[in-house]
Amino acid sequence: MTLADELLCVADTKLVMGNWLAETVMNGRSLPDYAAMLGMCTTSFGQTRALYQFLAPGYEAYSRLERGRDRDEICSMNLLDAPPRNWEDQVLTIWLAERATWTMMSGFLDHPDRRVAALARKIGEEAYFHLKYASGWFRLLVEEDESRAALEQVYDARLPLAADWFGPTDLEDPLHAAGERAVTPEQLRTSFLVDVAVELKSFGMVASAALTPPSGDWRDDARRRGPLPEGLFEVIRFKDPALAH
Amino acid sequence: MTISKGKRRPGARGSSTEARYYEVFGRTSSHDALTHLGSVEAPNPDLAQVRAWYIYDQHEWREMCVAPTDAFVPMGRAAQHTTIKAV
């Protein structure tokens, strides 16, 4: 896996996350909640755009990345493949995806290319509010029996997908070997799982989901298993490239 | 995952889910005074911060903070009629 592959995986994951937020914004609980969800939506798209521009400077290369790829070329995490089943699922899944992508980008905070380090720092700054949004909702959801049960259910289903994004534990990491990444994805995965457990514990939750990897062959350059589902691709694809400018 | 039980239902009086108003303040540079920007309604300080951050995003704030509206103590002769207002 190259640095470009790694950044594209984060960019595409943010693209799908932005679409999740755009599609579900009307499920917000109040007008200020809509505003927060739309704010997170636009910052997610902004991060995608910044990463695409870094990866593909110039109109044609950028256009292909943004609107010229088929669904088997999109490298978003499997965690976001299935739409949220309920509000608890929405909050928890966005939180896991945000925490996973930020954990991954934190490995590049000291990257020798200052532009990469700056992108990592900016994504971290914006992740602060995205994560805080979920924290605020967790505080509310754990107080209600039905929501608590729903959270337990979706956590067991979603956490293995989030952990899987860091890849099989026996893979070599050329980026770490080349000094481009401070730690290996395996170390980042451990750090991610510890952070998740600690934060959930602060809300009175005890995290204990089994981390069984999902089925399908691991695609190292895409950090996912299998192609993007057709239904999701229909949501995220650029509908009319001729109108783009 | 298991979650500890015995918490109150959302909306119960005194529950952390009861919506409150928070006043929002910000300044764009360290030379500026902290300015009252407005208010947001939120059930807890985390959501108040996030809502304030995305609603009052007309400037790139150097500093921003929120405080519960009921933490402000009106004073003086007009205290009974004091309403916190955005400037």
Automatic annotation (TrEMBL), chain A:
* Coiled-coil residue spans: none
Name its species.
Answer: Pseudonocardia xishanensis
| Protein name according to UniProt | Ring-1,2-phenylacetyl-CoA epoxidase subunit PaaC
Q: Tell me the Gene3D superfamilies matching this sequence.
A: 1.20.1260.10
SUPFAM superfamilies, per the entry: Ferritin-like (SSF47240)
Automatic annotation (TrEMBL), chain B:
**Source organism, top-level taxon:** Bacteria
Q: Which Gene3D superfamilies match?
A: Phenylacetic acid degradation B (3.10.20.520)
Xref: InterPro entries:
PaaB_sf (IPR038693)
Descriptive protein name: Phenylacetic acid degradation b
